[in-house]
Amino acid sequence: ARAEKRMVTLELKDGTIPNQVQASFKGATIRLRPARPGTGIIAGGAIRTVANLAGVKDLVSKTYGSSNRISNVWATLKAFQSIKKR
Hints:
Elements: H1 2-5, E1 21-25, E2 28-34, E3 41-42, H2 45-54, E4 59-65, H3 69-81
Parallel strand pairs: 3-4
Antiparallel strand pairs: 1-2, 2-4
Helix pairs in contact: 2-3
């Protein structure tokens, strides 16, 4: 039930996010950038998993600060929530 309440809807553009976003959670900062079709997901383990589950096909990411997987997942979710909706 908690997972359903926290679900995020992403509007993808050609299999990638429509704009660059950055988000922080505790010591982790994540920057997500759109990528050209065919690039794939260029990201670390936790971010790659979240992006795959979200249905993103092309993405470039960079992690700053903490390498804690849980902090990176929460920062990624915050970044997905902050994507501008059209």
